[in-house]
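Subgroup meeting minutes
Present: P.N., E.W., G.H.
Scribe: E.W.

1. P.N. recapped why we're keeping a running log of single-chain structure predictions: easier to compare across weeks, and new members can see raw inputs and outputs side by side.
2. G.H. added today's entry (92 aa).
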Amino acid sequence: MVTQHPVSQKIARLVDRIVSLSNPKFHFNNLCFIMKVLLENDYPLNCIIENINSHLKKIIMASNRKSVVNDNRIEAAFVIRCSFRGITEKLS
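Output recorded in log:
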């Protein structure tokens, strides 16, 4: 049986895995890697960037909503935000 999931759900899952399973210093390289893989599989660039950006915003907003915020999470959110800017600049 073949199941199909929306593109936004696929990309969100990849971003979740990057953020939750890797050290923040590797987020930039990992985001570049998934963008490369998605491009090689004929996903449109604007769709990739839009979905990654949207999901990163959700992750950052969710972490900011928590009543107890530890310094590492804030630093990780900052690294993710800066990393994503670097990726979009390189691809433009």
